[in-house]
Amino acid sequence: QVQLVESGGGLVQPGGSLRLSCAASGSIFSVISMGWYRQAPGKQRERVATISGSSTNYADSVKGRFTISRDNVKNTVYLQMNSLKPEDTAVYYCNLKRLGASDSWGQGTQVTVSS
């Protein structure tokens, strides 16, 4: 099994920045990708950013503002979020995909962008 623990969420003003972290532990092998998803109230969960090896992929809504990175030694993935907007308000979930296994999810961390 895989355990994912997120941290770094909080309340920030529009235009501000936050950095989310997700530490992975357990059966971390045959990893295909890690990433971040988010779910706003009344909306479906959506992909924000993913990283696979050195390749990254972003939702159009966050391109140029968010940066995903990974520390393979610490088994941690980060999401640097800059120029935050009220529409970025959501619960952010860490995701890990492994070959031949179901997706693993973190418990979620709340990000609120408001003045």
Task: Summarize the structure in words.
It is a single chain. This protein has 115 residues and is an all-beta fold. Helix content is 0%, strand content 57%. The strands form two sheets. Strands 2, 4, 5, 6, 9, 10 and 11 form a seven-stranded mixed beta sheet that branches. Strands 1-3-8-7 form a four-stranded antiparallel beta sheet, with no helix packed on it. A hairpin with a 6-residue loop joins strand 4 and strand 5. The radius of gyration is 13 Å and the shape is globular. The model has no long low-confidence stretch (mean pLDDT 96).
Describe the structure in brief.
With 115 residues, the protein is mainly beta. It has strands spanning 2-7, 10-12, 18-26, 31-39, 46-52, 55-58, 66-71, 76-81, 90-98, 104-105, 109-113.
Helix content: under 10%
Number of strands: 11
**N-to-C span:** 40 Å
SSE series: EEEEEEEEEEE
The total of helices stands at 0
Q: Mean pLDDT, nearest integer?
A: 96
Structural class: mainly beta
- What is the rounded Rg? 13 Å
Instruction: Give unreliable regions as ranges.
Output: none
Per DSSP, what share of the residues sits in E-state strands of 2 or more residues?
over 45%
Largest sheet: 7 strands, mixed
